[in-house]
Amino acid sequence: MDNSTRQPFGTWKSPLEPHLLASDVGLQDVQWNSDGNALVWLESRSGTGVLVCRQRGTAGHRDLTRNLSVRAQVGYGGGDFAVSQEIVYFVSGQEIYCQALDSTHSRLLANPGVAIAAPTPSPDGRWLLFVASTSKKDSIRLIDTDGQLEPATLVTESDFCMQPAWNPDNQHIAWVSWNHPNMPWQESSVCLSQLLLSSTKPRVGEIITLNSLLGISGGSFQPCFSPDGKYLSFVSDRQGWFNLQVLDLARMQIVAKVEEPAEHAPPAWIQGMRSHAWAADSIRIYFLRSQAGTTQLAIFDLEKQSVSIVTKLDQYSTLRQLSLSTPDNTVALIASSYNSPPRIVTVKCPRDTPKAVVTVERRSSSELMRSDFQHEPEYLSWGSGASVCYGLYYRPRNPEFQWDGPPPVIIKVHGGPTSEYSAGFDSDTLFFTTRGYAVLALNYRGSSGYGRIYRDSLQGKWGLSDVEDTRSAADYLVNQGQADTERVVVMGGSAGGFTVLNSLIHYPGFYRAGICRYGVSDLLALARETHKFEAYYPLFLVGDPKEDEKRYRDRSPASHAHRILDPLAIFQGTEDKVVPKTHSDAIADSLSSRGVPHVYKVFEDEGHGWRRAETVEEYYQIVDTFLRRFVGPDRTTQQTK
Known about the structure:
Blueprint: E1 5-6, H1 18-23, E2 26-32, E3 38-45, E4 48-55, E5 62-63, E6 81-84, E7 87-92, E8 95-100, E9 107-110, E10 115-121, E11 127-133, E12 138-144, E13 152-155, E14 160-166, E15 172-178, E16 189-196, E17 203-209, H2 210-214, E18 220-225, E19 231-236, E20 243-248, E21 253-257, E22 276-278, E23 284-291, E24 294-301, E25 306-309, E26 318-325, E27 330-337, E28 340-348, E29 357-363, E30 378-384, E31 387-394, E32 401-402, E33 409-413, H3 427-433, E34 438-443, H4 452-456, H5 465-479, E35 488-493, H6 495-506, E36 513-517, H7 523-529, H8 537-541, H9 549-555, E37 568-573, H10 581-594, E38 598-603, H11 613-630
């Protein structure tokens, strides 16, 4: 018997209240120690980074850090900690600390006075590599773990460095480097060098750039030495997809490639990302394989040149931050699916079969939402311009309510713009679908996950193709009867916010409303002011700001803000260094001067994204009220304050 209540879309009462979203724990990274007897992970609790440890054979886990917030600050962050033997090394601000896993006392190792990330202990535990970043150059630096020597600068030749790695011989290191104007997924190099250690002044020998040596072009990701020291694996998109490759170090030749139309690594937006690891036998490599928004754990056998899929992880659709306990080949990673919030899971893989035993070690939330409030996304594709566009469609779902006809739809536009919506758990989407909105998570041209050609198709067309794809997504859903043509909402943050603003400018009256979080509004200002990591990214996305100044102005929402006529909610953090507050101010001032319905909320002490629980809660409260007022069945055009 159906006991649901008939009530219009957008007015359903949801069990997912704003304070519940704010109470979730963010799971940032997970790693085994080198002995495989302890698992350490990083949790974000209302903006504070806390390291947590579970020893094997024990039932519970405990916090390691209490008085220090663990967070690296190179670019967008990441590369916050590493574990070796019974010691964890971590970054807090511009300082590196070490701490025994059975202690709560941290010891300061170094304070370089610059942004740092990716602490990487040597196999023997005597040395620690890390990335140091200034406004001009990045460097790979070295300190001894006893804290007796001054930090030694080993590598300084590149604008950017990431993912340093040690050979088990303690005498060779590898890393990824790249220079302006490239991003790491566009053109970066795997570098290799001998490390000449001494008690006074450690240094590196000749630096070998493997990309030049091997004739590889394109992006590179995560160099990783085999346990026997004979091989170096890394991920390269030389064939148009980020695929795993293996280098024989003695012959300096590629001896294995896993070439397929799938991504074995994401774009390296942050430090410390990992997508593969060697087994103890130096024959098998565990790697993450992403295709069409879904990630699998796979095993590559170097001797057989074959790939097998770990089938027992089928319940999860998104996997990240793979770490392997080499003594017994137990994998740890962060996993989620459309109906499972992120979890720390361990996967025991027997030697001769891909079948696995999966154990949940930590959950990011209470997971109290019933399964009948959630459903699997529908994978959609449609024509947009001369291209194909992709998206994940979520229907409204709440077993306590029902309504007829096409629902209002929120088209979510991701940032980057080189990001990707996957089929993993998304509490933001659930917030809307349980209230009676459909959601389309749009992977417009320029998104990752569909190969280099699709990712690069936004070159020179940012502000055009993304806007066209957003409109085509709405038209497709309306034509399929999956969206109410009178209630289409466009929502996004950062680069996605840029698309939101331009969508309202190009198609006034088509979208019922827009929701913009720290959106780019002035491309010339962005090219002048944004942080080092993306300083030259606009050259790829738009063109040269000097030679193409008119193009920059024409595509800047601030130049055409007077054409925004539809209700708009704008959110901004005061400490945003990527998209400063002036971008949002310009749009809000135009709306205010013309009496266009809008909300402008500025969050103090927040940056490029929300970290504090109280900010998350207030954000969703405002969004809910805004949508009810302007998109709900009793929508109005009255201006909000």
